């Protein structure tokens, strides 16, 4: 019975290696194909940005914009529309007739576009958001956004539109090339909380074990999920016979010693991980946070730190019980993790208090990041044990010029947090 289980495990592992290799090849090809498709949209947004920055008074006439946009659409077949948004308001569009309903649309006020637009402004990078439903024609599309600045001041945004329908066949061709017929490919849209809305393409039924990987379209990440393949019966038989022979050849005590050694190594790794990890949320605990600080790269000489506190969390525990409170903490932690940079360190320091380390981040950008998180938390509906709960959080932010000032920065952030609570909660205060 043991040999059967071991052989099943080996076959499962071999299948996993094979599927992971196939998935990595698919992802690499999708990266290449999508990169070629969206390259035109990135170039067109960069051209508009440069034209604004070098033009008189950072402005374009409608005729100049139409001339430039028409040439860009001719050169890049997958770019379907180009828009220019001074101060976040759509004021120029080409083709005009296809986008007339978008004119006057303020993406910084629209709750379905605001977070994505603010993220582009904050990160100062081009971002591919979508799929989204366009206001001008209700089509599903990707919006390639880029920030334009006049010196250090925000001027506006560019939007290059790529229709979803125009790239679906390219995606399907890549998946079929590698024999994948059942898959889900999800895009990136920080303004949507509904997973179904982020689906780019979905084919077949993903049954049994799943494998996922990230498709990187420039600096934007999509998620590809496929079903794990199953080996033919003759492979299982071959592995079982091989194991049986190996078991008969190898001396039993040696085999037992090997198992014991492997078990002790695994336990050591588990204990080390538990020492630095919060058991409930999976985040770093206070010790793990300090461990990460001590191992920061030498290039990290400054940054910002924030302390979060869920407002009136004690009421949740007192009213609904600690199981619901634990569920809220897990949901809160997961939502925060989804919307912070990979270079940041998020930890739970205890109770309902969390610490966010933002290396090489100015106090201004850190404040914007915390405002975004606060807004997303207040908009989220946390569902725990059939209960629907809304939360707010208070945040204190401080800056450090060197990692040796971290203890002082944490003290200042804690004071700023206290100030936020004193001023009525649901706010970000800076020390």
TrEMBL record:
Entries under Pfam families matching the protein: CHASE (PF03924), GGDEF (PF00990)
Q: Which EC number applies? A: 2.7.7.65
Give UniProt keywords alphabetically: Membrane, Transmembrane, Transmembrane helix
Q: What is the enzyme's class at the highest EC level?
A: transferase
Under the heading CDD domains, the entry gives:
GGDEF (cd01949)
Listed under catalytic activity are: 2 GTP = 3',3'-c-di-GMP + 2 diphosphate
UniProt cross-references to PROSITE patterns, sorted A to Z: CHASE, GGDEF
Q: What is this protein called?
A: diguanylate cyclase
